[in-house]
Amino acid sequence: MQIIKVEVTPVELRLKHVARMADITLDRITAVFVRMETKQGQNAWGCAVAHPDLTGEKPGDLVLACRACADAVPSLHPTNIEYSMSELTKIVEYGSSALCAFDLAFHDMLGLAVDMPLYRLLGGYRNRIQTSVTVPLAAVDDSVEIAKNHAANGFRMLKIKGGVNADEDVKRVRAIHRALPTLTLRLDADGGYSVEDAIEVSRALKGTIEMLEQPTPASEIDRLTQVSRHSAVPVLADQSLTGPESALKLAALGAVNGFSIKVAACGGLRCARQVDAIARAAKITTMVSCLIEPALLISAGLSFALSSENVSYSDLDGHLDFGNDPTQAGFLLEDGWLIAREIPGLGCSVNL
Q: Is 70 exposed, middle or buried (0-12, 13-18, 19+ CB in 10 A)?
């Protein structure tokens, strides 16, 4: 097997609805798709996303990094993933989303080479997992209506965005709980709380929310640790978790109860699996989450989530609000459950 051609294609993806988080408002993102073609005629796909506010990376910089990697790929063996990725790390800055795009393409190629779906190749612990869906920042009544619409579409787990006003977040969560008392609720503060506000929110919502995600600013691990030690509900690290090194630090400090791992944010499947291994050794639970991202990246996150026994939660809804995603997903979404199909590799096709 030999790679003879690599194409890098940026696509501006438009959101059907503006996404509002604690300190970010988005109506579009740039996704960069990578296609590897082999001499035997197989095509493998990878993808990464860039937005200065979402990933800290400008789209133009991501495109340049992907093209630099693309020039080197034909000299690499497509199934020697560890070696190939180490070579690409010499070309682009560590942490560049370009590494995620090529990590995914190499894993897709490996699945095609052995004619196996990637979730089985990575471990095959299960073939389906229930996912939450996001309720964005909005007024209380609007939040309740959004939550009801999600419930009507079969979702039974809701991740409620917060972090701007702690008291308002408590009101929103309680209102949603009153309207939909049987649904599982999670609150994601996106780093917007003080330690005191986070602890008060956890106590006010004990018995109402399943978890509190990233309550304090990402870089302030000491504050995150304080919240975890006094919180009335489990606390998960999200933006504080950037890769294996940060995972090891968080685990050593006992800073959180769980890790929220995003394949797109930590550099791909290799790094995501390393973080999960650290979590498993430290007896820390794992949630596989996502950015606002196309279905190809969601498929990678799903493959990872299905492969590991340590993954207890899934938050893989980042593809649902795009109006022009070129990905044709291979997985199924039924009543809030993501279900793998027996398609080799990532199981997706891309229409570009």
A: buried
User: In 10 A of CB 196, how many CB atoms?
Assistant: 12
Q: What is the mean pLDDT of residues 121-150?
A: 97
Asked if residues 186 and 132 have their Cβ atoms less than 8 Å apart, the reply is yes
Encode pLDDT of 251-306 as tens digits.
999 999 999 999 999 999 999 999 999 999 999 999 999 999 999 999 999 999 99
Domain with 146 in it: 120-350
Q: Buried b / exposed e across 131-168, counting CB within 10 Å, b at 16+?
A: bbbbbbbbeeeebbebbeebbeeebbbbbbbbbbebee
CB 229 within 8 A of CB 180: no
CA-to-CA distance for 146 and 161, rounded, in angstroms? 12
Pair (110, 239) in one structural domain: no
Residues 69 and 146 in one domain: no
Distance of alpha carbon 140 from the chain centroid: 26
* Residue 2 neighbours by CB under 8 Å, 6+ apart: 38, 39, 74, 78
Same domain, 172 and 144: yes
Give the C-alpha separation, 88 to 71, whole Å: 10
Task: Tell me how crowded residue 14 is: count the other CB atoms within 10 A of its CB.
Answer: 12
Judge if pTM exceeds 0.85. yes
The predicted-structure confidence for 16-41, as pLDDT tens digits, reads as follows 888 887 778 888 999 999 999 998 88
Q: SS3 helix, strand, coil % of the chain, rounded to 5?
A: 40, 25, 35
Q: Which CATH number belongs to the domain containing residue 43 in this structure?
A: 3.30.390.10
Per the listing, tokens 């709380």 go with 193
Domain end among 116, 131, 147 = 116
Exposed e or buried b per residue across 266-298, where buried means at least 16 C-beta atoms within 10 angstroms of its C-beta: bbbbbbbbbbbebbeeeebbbbbbbbbbbbbbb
Cα 2 from chain centre: 30
What distance in Å separates the CA atoms of residue 35 and residue 33, rounded to the nearest whole number? 7
First to last CA, the chain: 24
Q: Same domain for 129 and 93?
A: no
Amino acid 26: pLDDT: 87
3-state SS, residue 345: strand
